[in-house]
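Help! Submission page says 'invalid entity' but I think these are all valid:
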Amino acid sequence: MTEVLISALLIIGGLFGLVGSFGLLKLREPLQRLHGPTKATTMGLGATLGAAALYLPQPGAHLLIAVFLFVTAPLTALYLARAHLRGAPPDTPVS
Amino acid sequence: MLSFALTFAITCFALGFAMNLIHLARSPLLPDRLLAVDTMVINGIALIVLYGIRTGSALSVEIALLLAMTGFISTVSLAIFAKRGHLL
């Protein structure tokens, strides 16, 4: 029973991670591209960490990583969106 | 079944890592590249956790936690640099 739950969490996590990275590659506008990695990939990593917490002997540390990522992912998205809205400064080496 | 699911998840996250590398090489904007690097950090944490599940080692949790904290700090500081042009 636990093995079925761990396998389902692993497959859900892999699919969400793949969808998030594909959205980063697929979407057109720069501010649209913030959607995929900040939501779908974090969700996939959360499911993977849940599977690891069920399988490995130390579940608290995995749940700690999951809570930390769920707290810090919106902050990262906020700062990246601010950088997009402001635009890169002219003296920044871009390409 | 667990072995199949583990292989599937590792394949998905490795494909995502490759997609992030392609986006990092193609994108012209600095915040876009920062987003690709941040997603690469998240995919790397997932790959380390999956490696820990496969080998059953206890060390992978601490590596993943350290990588999560370092990735967050570096992404936020580089985003502030991309916004302002200076950091302090």
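Support: the input was valid. A stray whitespace character was the problem, and the output above is from the cleaned input. Residues 59-86 of chain A form the longest helix (28 residues).
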